[in-house]
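TL;DR need structure tokens for one chain.
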Amino acid sequence: MKTQFPIRKIIHIDMDAFYASVEQLDDPDLRNKPVAVGGSSERGVVSAASYEARKFGVKSAMSSVIAKRNCPELIFVKPRFERYKEVSSQIREIFLEYTDLVEPLSLDEAYLDVTENKKGIPSASMIAKEIREKIKEKTGLNASAGISINKFIAKVASDINKPNGQKTVNPEEVEAFLEQLQIRKFYGVGKVTAEKMYLLGIFKGIQLKEKSEEFLTENFGKSGRYYYNVVRGIHTSEVKTDRIRKSLGAERTFNENIASEIFMMERLENIAEEIERRLKKSKVAGKTVTLKIKYSDFTLQTRSKTLPYYIGSKAVILDTAKELLFQEKMKNSVRLLGITLSNLNTGKKETHVKEKEIAVQLKFDF
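>> reply
TL;DR here they are.
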């Protein structure tokens, strides 16, 4: 059998409840208890939740008030990002024992291309199992893994047998796997998109596959072509070891809602100062300033302006943010302000993927 796209051996490693698991590892009193990493105040937000907490419906990005209501026994701990980075570095060292083609997505997950690996192990599934065992031995933490022919399927697969499990989707299984996959499980399909697909009669991959590219593009814009391809197992993105930063920003949630624009400007000055510091550290500049406003009723608004030149100084960032702030009247009091600088001068690297016909044995060793 022949296919129209390259077949690779890709592993997606995803640490299980990483931040919360590190906290439980370091503090034995937290083990087997519902733990949330984040602020416990009225305006706090859950950054991560242990599996014990998730059983009560506690999840990341949830208001701490709602989380506590769902789980009265919930224990809040403050995040320790330096500690998480330390553990993440130990995990990455394990990845590099097998391949240099490692693409970190965050501190707790990464793609690995093991089509050719340093240890000459033919089975990607065996490599994933070894890596998970080494992570457990070295850090005491559990990891899950997805293994398949491309990044998209590997990421989807890593969620199948969580926690502390792995799922391999062999080349000959890809078609059936994607056809039976619930549409909300497709990476890149969020809650709003899933609901729209339901209205169009798309509940699983098999219904998505029945739709033409024209139909999907008409209903979902540029993402339509992406959905058309991935449901057919086509995803040519390579594992990139040098991910290019696309934006840089900072935001602040306030202890009390702010109604005065004078106070808002004071907060924006602090945020702009923080962004300037990060820009200098990263040695980048940008052209597009985006102001993020979250009102007291939790509605979110963004306003953007693109300048004709790159900026990196606090003064220019602040002036642009102020202009955006006064662009229209505030709808309500404000609980959060944020500034993001994008369109960065990090350089655009183009990857040209030539889709050539490659003969593939269906018993490709996974």
